[in-house]
Amino acid sequence: MDKNMRTAQKRKILEWISSFAFVLPVVIGIAVFTLTPMISSLGYSFTRTYTTVAGMGEFVGLKNYENLFGVYAEQIWDSIGSTFLFTVISLPITLVLSFALALFLAKDFKGVKVFRVVYYLPVMLPAVVSGILWSSLANGSDTSALNVVLAAFGAKPFAFYDSEKTAFFTFILMGLFTIGSSMILWIAQIKAIPDSMFEVADLEGANYFVRLFKIIIPMCTPMIFYNLIMGIINSLQIFSNVITLNIEPAGKEQLNFIVVRIYDFYNSTDLSTACALSWVLFVIIAVISALTFKFNKWVYYGEEV
Amino acid sequence: MQTIKSKRAVGLAIRYVVLLIFAVIFLFPVVELILKAFMTDEDIASGALFPSVFTVAAFPKAIDSGYFWWLKNTLIIGVINMVGITLSSSLCAYGFAKLKFKGRELVFSIVIATLMLPSICMQIPLYKLYFGMGWTNTWLPLIIPGFCGGGAINIFLMRQYMKGIPDSVCEAAKVDGANKFLIYLVIVMPMCLPIAGYVMLMSFLGCWNDFMTPLLYINEQSLYNLSLGLYYRYVNNAGSIPPANVQMAAATVMLLPCIILFFFFQKVLINGVSVGAVKG
Amino acid sequence: MKKFVTILLALVMSATVLTACSDPFKEPEENTEGKVAIQVGVLGTSTEQEALRKYKSGFQEKYSNVVIQQVQLPGGYSTAMDNFVATGNFPDVVFTPGDQHAAYSSRGHFLDLRTFDEADDTFSFDDIYPELIATTHYDSSDEGIWFMPRDYNKVVTFVNKDMLAAVPGENGQMYAGYGSFEELKKAWNTDTFYEVCAAVYKVIEENAENPDGVTDAQKQAGLTKGTNVVDARYNWAPVYEAMVRHYGGKMIDTSQLAGDATDWSKVLSVDTPETVTAYRELYKELSKPGYIRQSLASGGVSAFPNKKAAFWFTTRPSIGDINSANATFALDFLPFPYDYAGVGCSGYAITKKAAERTSEFAEVKAGTTEKMTNADYAWEFLKYVVSEEGQDAFGELGMGVPSLMSMKDKGEWLKYKSADLNHATFVEDVDWQETIAVNDIFCFPATAQKTISENSISIMTYVVKDNFWPDDLSVAVTDRTHYDAIYGKIDQYKDVMMTRIEGSLNV
Q: Which fold does the domain C154-343+434-441 belong to in CATH?
C-alpha cells in the first residue's frame, strides 16, 4: 500500500515535470529576458553607473530619483506632459476612427477586400521606412509633397514637422495613418457577432442606431478594453516613430516623450538616470493599467470559454 | 418599395464615396513613396508629385552590395525567428491549453502580465546582460528570445485556438498510448495550422520591420538588418545623405515583400486576428 | 496562385541569400603566422576603411614582421567605444575623431603619447600643426597628447564652378562680375562672398519664377528652383562657432572657467549681448537675404554634393561625399569667408590595453632586455601615419590634408583630381583670418556634453529663422523687450543645458 502510494506520488511528480516541460521555454524566457533585467535596472537606478565605465558604479541611494524630480524636474514633467497629451489626444481619435471604418468594412460588399487592404497598407510600413517617408513628405519646405498638395488647393505652405508649433500636431496626424491595425481587430470582432442577434433586432424593427448601441458596441466591449489597455501602454512608450524621423531640431524637441528622454540619458552615458526614469515610467504605466482594470465593469465577456 | 431601394442605393453611394476619399488619403504616402523612387534628382528638388520621366536611376544607387548583404541578414534572422517563435509558442500554448498541472494558471497569468511591462525598462539593462554573455554584436539577442516562448501574444493566440480543439480527440489518442509530445505533434499541431500560419507570418514581418533590438545590441555593419542599415544611411548619418529618390528606392524594395505577403495571406491574417478578437 | 507566389517569393529570397555570399564589410583574412599582430579599430565608413588600408599596406612593406589587423569600430564612435570600455577589450590602436575623445582619454583608456615621444629621438610633435595638438587634450588644463593627429581639417568653401560660370554680375561678366575663378579668388573675402551670394540668389529666383527662360548653361549647372546659394552646415560646431566669432560672439567662453568656483552659466555664453548681436548679424547678412535655407530638414540631404548649392562650408574629407553622390560638376576651393576658421582633425590613439599585450614574436626593445609590447609597435605605426610616406599614401585618396607642416606645399594630396585646383587653400594662412580649434565643449562635464552640443545646434537653427526676429534690427540687443522672442528661445535652451550640467555635477 505504502509502496503503491509512493509510486503514485512519483508518477504524479513525473507527470507534472513532463507537463511543465512544455511551458519551460517561456518560464526561462521571462526569468532571463524580463525579470533579470527589470531587477538589475532597479539596481542601476540606485547607483551612479556610466555606460563608459565597466560594471556597476557606486551606490548613491535615491540620488538619481532626487535629480529627476529636482534638477531635471522641469524637463521630466514636460516629457510626462507631452506623453500624456499625446495619449489623450491620439488614442480616442484612433479608437473612434478605426471603429467607424470597421463599421463600414465589416459587412461584405463589392470591393470590401480592396478597401481593407488599402487601409491596412500604411501599417505595413517598417518603422524606418515610415520615418524616412514622413520626414520627406511632411517637412516644412515648399517642395515637400504635402505642401505641394496644399499649394494645389491654393493654401500657404504649412510647417508640419519643421516648426515647434506644428510638429506635435503633425506627429499625431501621421500616427492616424496606422489606425488600420485596430480596424482589423474591430472587423474581426464585429463579424463574430452571431447573426441571430441581428435577426432578432430586425424582427423588433430596431433601426441602425439601436443596433449599433444595443448590439454591436456591447458585443465589442472586450475588444474596446483590449485596444484601450494596449493603446495606453503603447502610446506611453512611443519611441521608434520619433527617432526614425529626420527632421529639424525645433520639431523633434516637441516630441520629447518619456522614452525618448530615457534614450537621451542612456546616450549621454548616464545609464543610472536612464534606469531611474524607466522605473518612473513603469510605475506610471502600472498605476494607469491597474485603474483601467478596476473600472472595467462595462466589459461584456459573454460566457466563460 | 421603390423608395427603400433608392434609399439603399443612396446609402451605398455614400459609403463608397466616403471609403474612396479615405482610400485616397491612406494610399497617398505609399504611392508617393513608390513614385518618388522613380523620379530624377531634378523632380525631387522641384517637389514634383509625379515623375516627369520614369527612371530607375535611383535604384542602383540604393541597392548596392551592402544593401544586399543586409537583406540577406534580415531574411536569415526572419526565417530563424519564424521557426523559433512558432515552435516555442505552440509548445507553451499546448502546455497551457491541453495539459493540466499545478501552477498552470499562475504561470499563464504571469505570461500575460508581461504584455504590460514597458519594454524600455528591460532593454537598457539587457544591454549589460547580453554584454556579459558576449551576445552583443551577434544575432543571439535577435534570435534566442524568440525560442524562449516567442512572446506572450503568440502564446495567447495559440492557446485560444487550441482550446477550441475538443479534449475528446486528445483523450482518444492518450488511450491509444500516445504520449503528450506525440499528441502535440500528430494531433494538435495539424489542427492548428491556420493559427500557426498567422504566427509565422506575423513573426516574419515583425522581424523584417524590427528596429529597436538591432539598434541597441548590434553595432557592426556586417551584422545589421535592413532596418538598421537604412537608419544609419538615411536618418542618422553624420556624412551626406542622398536625395529622396535614392531613399525611397531603398524603402520601396524593403516594403515590397511586406506588401506581397500581405496581399496573398490576407485571409490568414484576418483569421488569425479573429481568433484573438472573438475569444479575447 | 497563392502557392505559386509563395514559392516564387521563397525562391527569390533564397537566391538573395545565395548571391550575397561575400561580406562587403569585412576585410579579407591575412596570414599572421610568425608575425606581431596589431589590431587597429576604425569606423565602418568607406573613407576610414580605405584610409587604413592605405596605411596598412605601406606600413607592412616597411615592417615585414608586423601585421595590421583592421577591426571595424561598430556603429557610431561612442557606441563602439562604450562597448570596448565595458568588455575591456580594446584593440591596440583606435581611430579617434578630434572632438570625441575626451570621454575616453580623460578616463584613462588611452596612453599619453608624450612618453613615447620623449623616449624616441626620431620623432617630434613640433612637426605637426600646433592647432591640431591643441585638440588632442581633453580639456583646457590638460597637456596630454592622447592621439596622433592624422589630417589637418580646416573648414573651407567648396565651390561649384559650373554654377558661378553661369552667374552674370552687373557688368555682364560671369562669376558674378569677376570674370574668372582666378579673379574671384584674388578678391575673396567676406564682402565678396556676400556679393557673389546675392548674384547667385538673383539668378535662382529669376529661374524659379520663369522656368522657361532658363539658359542652357544655367540649367546644366543646376541653377533652378530648389537650389541653394550656400549649403552652410550652420548646425556643425566648426562652422557656427567660427561664424559667431566673426561677429564678435562666443558660444562657450572658456575664459570664465575658474576651477571649482566656476559659474557655469557664464561659461555657457550663448546669451550674452555680444553673442546675440552675432546671431543677429548672421541672420541679417546670410539668412534674411535667402542665402541659406532656413530649414535643415528636407531629409537632411546635403545639397552641394547633389548639385543643389553653389557653395559648401566643409572640410576636405567631404570630397568622399561628392564622389559617392556621382554628380559631375567642376569643383574648386576657396577659404572660409569669415575672420575665423574652425580647424579639427582625426587620428589614432594607442589604448592602455596595448601596453599589457606582448606578442610571442615581438623583438627585444633596443637598449633593454624587455620585449616590445603591442603599444611599442603601435607607436611605430603612428609614426608611420605621420611620416611623409604615410601621409602621401593617405593623400592619394584625396580626402585628407597632411597634418605634417613640412608637407604644406608638397605631396600627393596636391595632385588629387587636378594639380590646378586651389588645394593650397586647405592649409594656407589667410591674412585676414585666424584658425581656431573647436574643442571648448570639453570643459563641460562628460555627461552634459551631448546635451550642450545638441542644444547649441538648436539655438543656431532658431537664430537663422525669420519668425523670431523683430522687423527693426537696428535696436541694440541689450533691449531685451525688443528681442523678447529670440531671447525667450535662447533662454529656454540655456535652461536645458544648465540643467544637464547641474545634474551631471550633482551626483
A: D-Maltodextrin-Binding Protein; domain 2 (3.40.190)
